[in-house]
Write a structure and sequence with these properties.
Blueprint (H helix, E strand, L loop, with lengths): L11 H11 L6 H10 L13 H17 L8 H12 L6 H17 L7 H11 L1 H19 L1 H5 L6 H4 L8 H28 L9
Length: 210
């Protein structure tokens, strides 16, 4: 049975076990480590953060290849090496991708003022404070969407091919599809936070407000 390498998967059980191992919290520890590291300082000019100038390009290259397959399709040892790495560290929530997200985080911390003064800044602050609720709402909502579109993909922990299943004439429809779901998830998370605040202000357990 192939646990670390994803192919070939010969049964639904092997697919489930492989997916269960890959989504284990252990694989998120590099992101936790980066968060702890940058909590001590996120200035790119600091020598302790110079590794980002190497880490970010590597992360960007693997992210582009994960999306397009342009590098792994090169018919030589380089392409085979990229393919092996992508197969060994499978998915988009791995140490190969955290460098890209880390740089976005650092840019946001540098550019966004600590104390919001305008409507846009206050809205960004609200989203930041509700980020965990938005994530939970997204997991719940998208699990329903995935299950409704393709039960097989849900069982195998895979993203359904929405364009093929729904018969879209163009992959460009992914853009409004993404924006609609993003709006729903952000709005749902913000409403969740607001509901919790109102429940807490009345000094009643949450279940008495359902």
């Amino acid at each position: 049975m192939f646990i670390w390498l994803p192919y070939p998967i010969d049964s639904a059980l092997e697919g489930f076990l492989t997916s269960a191992i890959r989504v284990n919290v252990i694989f998120f520890l590099p992101a936790v480590g980066l968060g702890l590291w940058f909590s001590k300082g996120y200035n790119l000019r600091s020598r302790r953060n110079w590794f980002m100038f190497l880490y970010y390009p590597i992360s960007l290259v693997f992210m582009i290849d994960y999306t397009t397959g342009i590098l792994s399709s090169i018919p030589n040892a380089f392409g085979e090496g990229i393919t092996w790495i992508q197969n060994f560290i499978r998915g988009d929530y791995t140490l190969l991708f955290y460098g890209y997200a880390a740089l976005l985080f650092m840019a946001a911390m540098i550019l966004i003022p600590q104390y919001p003064s305008g409507k846009v800044h206050r809205f960004v602050q609200r989203i930041g404070r509700a980020s965990y609720h938005i994530l939970l709402f997204q997991i719940f909502y998208m699990s329903i969407v995935y299950y409704a579109i393709s039960i097989d993909a849900s069982v195998m922990h895979e993203i359904p091919d929405f364009a093929l299943i729904l018969g879209w004439p163009s992959d460009l429809l992914y853009i409004p599809f993404y924006l609609i779901n993003l709006t729903i998830c952000v709005g749902g998370g913000l409403l969740w936070v607001e509901a919790e605040k109102r429940a807490a202000s009345r000094e009643k357990p949450w279940y008495q407000h359902v």
